Amino acid sequence: MSLLIESITLELKAIEAAGTWKKERVIASPQRARIVLKNGIEALNFCANNYLGLSDNNEVISAAKIALDKYGAGLSSVRFICGTQEIHVELEKKIARFHGRENAILYASCFDANAGLFETLLTSEDTVLSDELNHASIIDGIRLCKAKKHRYKHRDMVDLENKLQDSMSSRLRLIATDGVFSMDGTVTPLPKILELAKKYCALTFVDDCHATGFFGNSGRGTEDYFNQLGSIDIINSTLGKALGGAAGGYTTGKKELIDLLRQRSRPYLFSNSLPPPVVASASKVMDLIINSTEILDRLKSNTNLFRSNMKKAGFTISGDNHPICPIMIGDARLTTEFADKMMEQGIYVTGFSYPVVPKGKARIRVQISAAHSQNDIEHAINAFVYNARKLKIIK
């Protein structure tokens, strides 16, 4: 153990020396547009996945409280033993209807949904083709399966087609991609992927965690954004971001696919059921967004306001008009200093550096919420401009 601790200590010192140490600020309030930290500082929060601002919604909280009283704190069981309640089944039906699919299956997280998919579906006779910048959970899930594995260059459809051609002898080919890439706010080229999938008889899988509920005309994610509803074979997503922000993930698709996952998917079979309050809160969110785009429209307006004004000020922002707005800085130390100075002015943002993003591509990832007011957005922009000029990031 002493040898292990010595090795760990050296690694920790190296992380700190590189300027990539990740601080964890303690929040003493609910997750909302304006938060209070444990040290008493109040700040506007611009780095949560609370895209629709529903993490602290009164109707959502009320639904969770009612479920807590009616169904208890948890199930103390996995689904197939004695861990399924009527609300679990009801939520799965709502998710399937929302996506226009036949069925859905709940997991403790989307990380678990990704961990349980590829191993269950693919054999050594199959091939999976994965975008090189896919989320870690997709990468880890693919590692668990026995299929042949190919990484295609990020959003490079020529490279994907070459790899599809090279794998023609496989029983099944599955193209796996994030819908929206969370570090860059960029969208996968879904129409071209669908075209290639049809041409080479491949299946399509999209992780839509940073799209479900708020991206596209009706908030139904990447395929909605491209007017391709119903086109993706398998969708995995989360309840822990726009859909209430609590926890949980899911897979939705064909009935037979979901039936097999219930029988074989290890994270599903060996993990406790989602707690009733979490299920109820997500179910209420589905009710709030399924028939109205009011919150979605507010988020779009806020996103456009922030992106357009930041670009006018001279900032380099990555992404495809998505609420994820990465402010590209480059240097890790400078990015950390910039984020700290923003906090001093009451703007909570976080610097991202290696290994979360590639070396030399450090950034402050701003995330816009429907809960932000126009004044909130403008205040954040002014703070960014003021500090960027002081640090000579912009003129």
From TrEMBL:
<dbReference type="InterPro" id="IPR011282">
    <property type="entry name" value="2am3keto_CoA_ligase"/>
</dbReference>
<dbReference type="GO" id="GO:0008890">
    <property type="term" value="F:glycine C-acetyltransferase activity"/>
</dbReference>
<dbReference type="GO" id="GO:0006567">
    <property type="term" value="P:L-threonine catabolic process"/>
</dbReference>
<dbReference type="Pfam" id="PF00155">
    <property type="entry name" value="Aminotran_1_2"/>
</dbReference>
<dbReference type="InterPro" id="IPR050087">
    <property type="entry name" value="AON_synthase_class-II"/>
</dbReference>
<feature type="domain" description="Aminotransferase class I/classII large">
    <location>
        <begin position="43"/>
        <end position="384"/>
    </location>
</feature>
<dbReference type="InterPro" id="IPR015422">
    <property type="entry name" value="PyrdxlP-dep_Trfase_small"/>
</dbReference>
<dbReference type="GO" id="GO:0030170">
    <property type="term" value="F:pyridoxal phosphate binding"/>
</dbReference>
<keyword id="KW-0436">Ligase</keyword>
<dbReference type="InterPro" id="IPR004839">
    <property type="entry name" value="Aminotransferase_I/II_large"/>
</dbReference>
<comment type="similarity">
    <text>Belongs to the class-II pyridoxal-phosphate-dependent aminotransferase family.</text>
</comment>
<keyword id="KW-0808">Transferase</keyword>
<dbReference type="InterPro" id="IPR015424">
    <property type="entry name" value="PyrdxlP-dep_Trfase"/>
</dbReference>
<dbReference type="InterPro" id="IPR015421">
    <property type="entry name" value="PyrdxlP-dep_Trfase_major"/>
</dbReference>
<keyword id="KW-0012">Acyltransferase</keyword>
<keyword id="KW-0663">Pyridoxal phosphate</keyword>
<dbReference type="GO" id="GO:0016874">
    <property type="term" value="F:ligase activity"/>
</dbReference>
<protein>
    <recommendedName>
        <fullName>2-amino-3-ketobutyrate coenzyme A ligase, mitochondrial</fullName>
        <ecNumber>2.3.1.29</ecNumber>
    </recommendedName>
</protein>
<dbReference type="InterPro" id="IPR001917">
    <property type="entry name" value="Aminotrans_II_pyridoxalP_BS"/>
</dbReference>
<dbReference type="GO" id="GO:0005739">
    <property type="term" value="C:mitochondrion"/>
</dbReference>
